[in-house]
Amino acid sequence: MKEYKTVTKIAGPLVFVEGVNDIGYGEIVEIQLPSGERKKGQVLDTQRGLAVVQVFGTTAGINLEDTTVKFLGETMQIGVSQEMLGRVFNGLGEPRDKGPAIIPEKRLDINGAPINPYARAEPRDFIQTGISAIDGLNTLVRGQKLPIFSGSGLPHNALAVQIARQAKVVSSGKGGKDQFAVVFAAVGITHEEASFFMRDFEKTGALERAVLFLNLADDPSVERIITPRLALTTAEYLAYEKNMHVLVIITDMTNYCEALREIASAREEVPGRRGYPGYMYTDLSTIYERAGRIKGKEGTVTQLSILTMPGDDITHPIADLTGYITEGQIVLGRDLHRKNIVPPVDVLPCLSRLMNLGIGKDRTREDHRGMADQLYAAYATGRDLRSLSAVVGEEALSATDKLYLKFADVFEKRFIAQGTHEDRTIEQTLDLGWEMLAMFPESELKRLKKEFIEKYGRKHRKN
């Protein structure tokens, strides 16, 4: 450990220390104030004897003459244990549920280690969220990273806790003994939101199989850089060493990126698009790419990251870069929200690139792919005709067009809408899809095999 009293500058959450040597990036720092108070920090940059330290907390009370900076010679770590299940922690990994301190089985670097691409196994198998718009049309697969694009005021928090409460793995031939856990990381949330998350998890019993990390809006912004990494390190331990299937839910990645921009501004870096740092793509990839499956390991890490698009702009740098790194997106629509459709999942811009790896005869059902394609095509046609009828009037449409128009309304009210407490199995979702398609003559069901229409569709037509 090395101590220095050479603080030369303080800028926002950053402290600049000169005359240092043999200091590493990410090294943990202990700062002793003249008052005797101690603060923790982390080395953000080091070059030519100058170290830039980001403080975990405010820099109030730090002065240039009497402050001592001690470099501890280790990176930030978290003590992990299976006892973390059912516990709530703050944004720095400290218990905030008034429970006993965790006795760690292991201490791990929160930055993790890159997964060798050769060691990666292909994501496969199905995670059932109980939400038809996701399970039926944009299936979540074990080992996938699938973000949820939302907007200000949309109910993404309610969707997040619903998924955390309802998500389960479909047994892969092991008699249903697969262990499943949820690691939930809330970044930059309000006290009201934190109470909502804790209350819902405790009331529904979902907390027993979950680990919660809550970083509040009035916590130091630098904590928002740390919280997702604490959650992912915990998830990797449970998955790869305890053989569990872990779903990581992070909300809200926009707050994370705002913290990145704030720190970059304090460092006086040259800004990139809309003021965000030019390395934001690389930084986001260090979070998103920690999802996956590893050859020889039973456990998996699946990631659902929620972000609010500023101004509902899907081309905004945060959403844009996220879309490049991840494997699809779930999009919440404001128009559906105005219609009181819950959850307001706008299925047309949604996509799950790995869906085909998680569905089919041995995983969900043999008619799943064709059903999803047919529902999507019918709804897209209905949406187009809805716009057309606003111009030419519904009277100008043909009988078949009116059928598609009616289907779009029924599909939104019965298939997409299901409230925040209805948990549908994949069989219920697919059967509901057949019930929707019973509105059409068989000649319109061009994306479904006749054998499936005979096997699954006939009973709904008789009704």
Description:
This protein has helices spanning 132-135, 156-166, 191-204, 223-240, 253-266, 280-288, 317-325, 334-338, 355-358, 368-392, 399-416, 426-437, 450-462; strands spanning 2-4, 7-11, 14-18, 27-32, 38-47, 50-55, 68-75, 77-80, 87-90, 106-109, 120-121, 126-128, 140-141, 148-150, 168-169, 180-189, 210-216, 245-251, 292-294, 300-308, 328-331, 351-352. The strands form four sheets. Strands 9, 11, 14, 16, 17, 18, 19, 20, 21 and 22 form a ten-stranded mixed β-sheet that branches. It is α/β, with parallel strands linked by helices and 463 residues long. 44% of the residues are buried. It has three domains: 2-74, Beta Barrel (Thrombin, subunit H), CATH 2.40.10; 78-358, Rossmann fold (3-Layer(aba) Sandwich), CATH 3.40.50; 368-462, Orthogonal Bundle (Bovine Mitochondrial F1-ATPase, ATP Synthase Beta Chain, Chain D, domain3). It contains 13 helices and 22 strands. The chain is elongated. A hairpin with a 2-residue loop joins strand 5 and strand 6 (50-55).
